[in-house]
Specification:
The two termini are 34 Å apart. The chain is α/β, with parallel strands linked by helices and 360 residues long. The protein is globular. It has helices spanning 16-24, 44-61, 75-87, 101-110, 226-231, 241-256, 259-280, 308-317, 342-359, and strands at 5-6, 67-72, 93-98, 115-121, 145-148, 150-151, 156-157, 169-172, 189-193, 204-209, 284-285, 297-302, 320-321, 332-335. The structure holds pyridoxal-5'-phosphate.
Length: 360
């Protein structure tokens, strides 16, 4: 069977070579006579897998020694709560930048624990841009500053490094982690659900500066305290072992591709192909401000929305799936994470050209 080009926002496409290797190792991992799924998480085999995954992640992202890399569960959504629970540290408020659907969810959760100061918001223009640093009204007494590096639904991405002074900067990187190099030392904490740009759903990565760990709110369940996971090397309870294994294969694949600088080049090339076409088209439109367009999630609309269904049907017939936009936005969305090959974007653009010529 031919594999499709999967433009899903998440769970999303994985590198084919990773899936092939996982298939080969499914019944017998490295002569152990067992599948990774069946291994004890405290056994020598799995400990090796987990240690390698962490080492490769640290190498890829250049994570400094005073940061912990945790492999947790509960999705980015649980981090919306764990961040205030752990990082308030006796302070009454936190600053949030409101850029769209995911930022709003983070804000909603934080409001359960503290006063939320919306330091900047893109609501005035329907979340179609990233508010400039000069527009951020930061409070120097805030416990932390939270922003969403890439709004997966709106297709808005920060292409610059925000500053938060001495206040720890917290970032939801769920949909653009590993898509380009980042300077981890600029952050207090980074988190990301794995199912966009890393691996299978069920795994959440948290990268946290050591000095921010160990001051959770009273009565915090141990599972929600970063300290518990730091003290137990992310093995306080049974971790999502198979998801960690696949993430480890993806990390190795990223290293083989040349690391994050090479991924950025590749991702820019893919995104440019699509955005250049959109800018030249009189039929397909991008709703996002040019400087803030996401390299990962590309929403677009048809001039004649009554043709949406026909567009999707034709795409499917050509082996391209999951192009329907999020229910809150409508139109289309092409998610083109690390694992989407250039050929997939080329196939999409060629189809869009053909569709425009017929219906434009
Ligand atoms: C998908 C997503 C989330 C939610 O992730 P879950 O793993 O489903 O909890 C949060 N933030 C961003 C930016 C996302 O793309």
């Amino acid at each position: 069977m031919a594999r499709v080009f999967n433009f899903s926002a998440g769970p999303a496409a994985l590198p084919e070579s990773v899936l092939r290797q996982a298939a080969e190792e499914m019944l017998d991992w490295h002569g152990s006579g067992q599948s990774v799924m069946e291994m004890s998480h405290r056994g020598k085999e799995f400990m090796t897998i987990a240690a390698e995954a962490e080492a490769d992640l640290r190498e890829l992202m250049g994570i400094p020694a005073n940061y912990k890399a945790l492999f947790l569960q509960g999705g980015a959504t649980l981090q919306f709560a764990m961040v205030p629970i752990n990082l308030l540290r006796g302070k009454a408020s936190a600053d949030y930048v409101n850029t769209g659907e995911w930022a709003k969810k983070a804000i909603k959760e934080a409001k359960q624990y503290c006063q939320v100061n919306v330091a900047a918001s893109a609501e005035d223009r329907n979340y179609s841009y990233a508010p400039a640093q000069e527009a951020w009204k930061l409070d120097k007494d805030a416990a932390y500053v939270h922003y969403t590096a890439n709004e997966t639904i709106g297709g808005v991405e920060f292409h610059w490094q925000p500053h938060s002074g001495d206040v720890p900067l917290v970032c939801d990187m769920s949909s653009n982690i590993l898509s380009r190099p980042v300077d981890v030392s600029k952050f207090g904490l980074i988190y990301a659900g794995a199912q966009k740009n890393i691996g299978p759903a069920g795994l959440t990565i948290v990268i946290v500066r050591e000095d921010l760990v160990g001051q959770a709110l009273p009565q915090t369940p141990l599972m929600l305290d970063y300290k518990t996971h730091v003290d137990n090397d992310s093995m306080y309870n049974t971790p999502p072992t198979y998801a960690i294994y696949i993430a480890g294969l993806v990390f190795r694949w990223l290293k083989q591709q040349g690391g994050l600088a090479a991924m950025e080049k590749h991702n820019r090339e893919k995104a440019a192909l699509l955005y250049d076409f959109l800018d030249g088209s009189g039929f397909f439109l991008s709703p996002v401000a040019k400087p803030d367009r996401s390299l990962m999630n590309v929403p677009f609309t048809l001039k004649k929305p009554e043709l949406d269904e026909e567009f999707l049907k034709g795409a499917k017939a050509r082996g391209m799936i999951q192009l329907k936009g999020h229910r809150s936005v409508g139109g289309m969305r092409a998610s083109i994470y690390n694992a989407m090959p250039l050929e997939g974007v080329r196939t999409l653009v060629n189809y869009m050209k053909e569709f425009e010529a017929k219906h434009g």
